[in-house]
């Protein structure tokens, strides 16, 4: 009996050790930023493309050319409520983080203490960005005003409050490959980068399974709003029959071909895409026309839709 109990204990310890190892953070290589210098000027446009301010500016705060990324915005989901943290260049934000720690958080979903970040922060899209682009964004954020606001904790119930379990989630649902594969034009490839990586449009426009993993077989086919307020629309060619010029116009001005104006979260997305170049907006349109059509019951984009291409919650700090 003693031997049997000892065997069971050894197996349990080995199993626990293996589980801990499998769910441990997968950090960027320590050399990832070797030879990389962030460019704040270039990072300003990339910051807009990535939608960082859309989530990290305090609720109700006035948007300016120098946003204060004090956090505090709340995002209700079926798993609980996530609260965007302070990511300003202050000790309460990311001021004491190294560039490597910030880039690692954005691209691997791991904070400065080595803890997993929740996928409410779209690192599962940013993991396809280039290290140079993320470093440029970090350089720009460091030029913005600091805020001494403390980051508020997420409001999650058991077992979703166990961060180590996110390592298992990553094993199941993290994807570092592109959704749209095949022979693409340079313009479509650029659009893919903007939509699938920096813009992380799929984080809201793609349905999820019961554990919150993206259903990539229905890429961009629309999904329930995570806060329970209607649906995010289908933007594949099966749901969005606009021309490329129509899409470009909407991304620049917010006006639709039906003489309407986008509203809800999409209005914030347009404020971001309006800062991109004409070529980048055209690339996004070319990509959206190239993705496979997927039928769904999601509504067409319009003035009252709850679209949110900037993501469910973009927590670049303690998410």
TrEMBL record:
> Gene3D superfamilies annotated for this entry?
Cytochrome c-like domain
- Heme as UniProt keyword: yes
**Any idea which UniProt keywords this protein has?**
Heme, Iron, Metal-binding
Segment Disordered: which positions? 291-319
Q: Fetch the InterPro entries from UniProt.
A: Cyt_c-like_dom, Cyt_c-like_dom_sf, Cytochrome_c-type_DH
Q: Which domain of life does the UniProt lineage start with?
A: Bacteria
Cytochrome c domain location is 38-145, 186-292
Q: Does the keyword Heme apply?
A: yes
Molecular function via GO: electron transfer activity; heme binding; metal ion binding
Q: What name does this protein carry?
A: Putative diheme cytochrome c-553
Annotated source species: Rubellimicrobium mesophilum DSM 19309
């Amino acid at each position: 009996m003693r031997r049997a109990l000892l065997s069971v204990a050894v197996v349990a310890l080995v199993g626990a050790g293996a589980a801990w190892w499998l769910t441990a953070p997968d950090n960027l290589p320590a050399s990832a930023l070797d030879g990389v210098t962030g460019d704040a000027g270039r990072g300003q446009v990339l910051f807009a493309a990535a939608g960082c301010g859309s989530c990290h500016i305090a609720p109700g705060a006035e948007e300016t050319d120098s946003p204060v990324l004090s956090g505090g915005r709340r995002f209700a989901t079926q798993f609980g409520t996530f609260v965007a943290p302070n990511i300003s260049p202050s000790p309460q934000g990311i001021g004491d983080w190294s560039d490597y720690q910030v880039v690692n958080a954005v691209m691997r979903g791991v904070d400065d203490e080595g803890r997993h970040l929740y996928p409410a922060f779209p690192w599962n899209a940013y993991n396809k960005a280039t290290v140079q682009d993320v470093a440029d964004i970090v350089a720009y954020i460091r030029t913005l005003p600091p805020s001494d606001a403390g980051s508020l904790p997420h409001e999650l119930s058991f077992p979703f409050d166990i961060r180590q379990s996110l390592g298992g989630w990553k094993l199941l649902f993290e994807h570092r490959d592109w959704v749209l594969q095949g022979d693409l034009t340079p313009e479509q490839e650029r659009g893919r980068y903007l939509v699938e990586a920096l813009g992380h449009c799929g984080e809201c426009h793609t349905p999820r399974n019961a554990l919150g993993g993206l259903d990539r077989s229905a890429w961009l086919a629309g999904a329930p709003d995570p806060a329970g307020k209607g649906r995010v629309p289908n933007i594949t060619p099966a749901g969005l029959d606009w021309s490329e010029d129509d899409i470009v116009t909407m991304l620049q001005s917010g006006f639709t071909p039906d003489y309407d104006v986008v509203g809800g979260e999409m209005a914030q997305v347009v404020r971001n895409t309006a800062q991109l170049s004409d070529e980048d907006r055209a690339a996004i349109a070319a990509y959206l026309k190239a993705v496979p059509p997927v039928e769904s019951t999601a509504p067409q984009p319009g003035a009252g839709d709850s679209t949110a291409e900037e993501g469910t919650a973009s927590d670049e700090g303690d998410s």
